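pinging the channel bc i need a second pair of eyes. not urgent but kinda urgent?? the chain im working w is below, pasted from the shared doc
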Amino acid sequence: MRHEPAEGVGADRRPGAVGDRPEARLERAKAFGATHVVNSRTTDPVEAVRDITGGGADHVFDFVGARPVTAQAMQMLGKGGGLYLIGVAAMDAGLEVSSMVALTNSQRVQGVYMGSSNLKRDIPFYASMYLQGRMNLDDLVSKEIGPTEIESGYEALKDGSTARVVVTDFSV
């Protein structure tokens, strides 16, 4: 997936894929620079990613954290590829990894907590990119709410057309 903020660090060099179900999310991924999208309801996402990338992806990001999705993500990896676990999984969720496949293909799995960010470095960098017009954050926010609207904000997230709900009004 080529994503606008990632272009500044060379992530646009190779095509990638986004697998998701709600059609609105797939369209949003395209709007933010995805070179390919895969609807996992109608297409085998593992086969599609391996076809798109010519044998497997260099990087796969699991934002879901569900055991079947994580297993598919592992199968999408190419030689030397890395799987990044971002989605919060159930405490008993796990991933079966063939040691031989991981070893012979030099694959790795890495947890990413809170974006694995260095906040002192990253927040000013992102703010600078935004202020320069190089990072579109505005279109990521679908709805702005106040603290008394938290429940309706969570409900809005269940709809595939809502990207992010952000608390911006702190007056009570």
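so Residues 1-5 have pLDDT under 50 and may be disordered. and Residues 141 and 164 are 5 Å apart (CA to CA). — does that match what u expected or am i reading it wrong
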